[in-house]
Amino acid sequence: MSGLIFHLIAHTHWDREWYLPQATFQARLVPMLDDLIERLQADAGFRTFLLDGQTVLLEDYLRARPERENDLKALVKTGRLQVGPWYVLGDELIPSGESLIRNLLLGTADAERLGGRLDVLYSPDAFGHPAVLPTLAREFDLKYGVLWRGLGGEPGQERDFFRWRGPDGRDILLWHLPPDGYEIGVDLPGAGARLPDIWTQVRATLVQRAAGKHIPLFIGADHHAPHPTLARLRDLLADLEPASSFRISRLDEFFQTAESTAAKTSAGELRWSYGYTWTLQGVHSTRAPLKRRHGQVELWLERLAEPLVALARLAGSRDRRPTLETAWRTLVRTQFHDTIAGCTADAVASAA
């Protein structure tokens, strides 16, 4: 294929807690975001950065660096830093539907307070997806999505674009990450003799699945700082492949240019992709005491605390909605995909 348009998506995937506790990753997050802010401010060629679709990272950062809030707002408002729409990149099958809604409500509110939300349902690492997710996305004015696990490897799933239809008939346009996921471009260097060979492999993986001429190229990985020479990498790739175009793009910009791409329609749960990548359905039975306790707290919030606070407010009592929001934030933070799935270090599970 010639005349392709590759959209370089600079990003990081930041597991808030996983094989190390949250405090340890927090100690890495703060200097990473310090450097990211300063680089975005100083380097116009580094157009934009995708902060993993979850606003909790900025909440954690501002707890340590409250003086940087105005810097963040300026970058978010101008589209240089892409944030939201989620509060956390949670599991989507273990929490209740109400928890998914609260996750999006909190993430949207955080992003809008900082200057604007990324209008893409970004779910790069959840261990499967419920059938209702396209419907929830459209309720939040999200008509695009990116996911990885739960789809691929079956007949009819060879291309990278899909229309995923919810139970109510509405759909979203999905771009499906390649088998290597969001780390597809992490090894592309900004200089050196290795670039042509690495690019040949990356290009082959992307192009063989491409449904159209617009192809996103994710540049980033778990807990990685931004690519050190992204604009230089773009220029080198353009030199290697002059028949194609290379852009540093926001994720929503990519979707806006690719919206007319032909795409098959899919419906229902997405939770089987073992011929493509790991979906990790075994996590639904791990650390059962943690899941039981989570379910109890979730039920108390939904069925007891919320109705009683609403009735008390109608009766003239003090407004306790801020307390409920704090409770929901605390609960949703435990729904981070590795945390509630129970595929973490013991120290993380003990603290959840």
* Averaged pLDDT: 96
| Assembly of the depicted chains | single chain
Q: So what's the CATH class of the largest domain?
A: Alpha Beta
Strands of the widest sheet, in order across it, are 4-5-7-6-10
Instruction: Kindly state the number of beta strands.
Output: 10
Assigned CATH architecture of the largest domain: Alpha-Beta Barrel
| Helical residue percent band | 40-55%
Number of domains: 2
What is the percentage of strand-forming residues?
Answer: 5-15%
According to CATH, the fold-level topology of the largest domain is 7-stranded beta/alpha barrel
**Outline type:** globular
Radius of gyration: 20 Å
CATH superfamily of the largest domain: Glycoside hydrolase 38, N terminal domain
Write the layout of secondary structure elements.
Elements: E1 5-10, H1 22-42, E2 49-50, H2 56-64, H3 69-77, E3 81-82, H4 97-114, E4 121-123, H5 133-139, E5 144-147, E6 161-165, E7 171-176, H6 195-207, E8 214-219, H7 230-240, E9 245-248, H8 251-258, E10 264-267, H9 288-314, H10 321-333, H11 337-341, H12 346-351
Helix pairs in contact: 1-2, 9-10
Describe this structure in words.
The chain is of the alpha/beta class and 352 residues long. It folds into 2 domains: 5-281, Glycoside hydrolase 38, N terminal domain (7-stranded beta/alpha barrel); 283-351, Up-down Bundle (Substrate Binding Domain Of Dnak, Chain:A, Domain 2). It contains 12 helices and 10 strands. It has a 5-stranded mixed sheet with strand order 4-5-7-6-10. Helix 1 (22-42) packs across helix 2 (56-64) and helix 9 (288-314) packs antiparallel against helix 10. The mean pLDDT is 96.
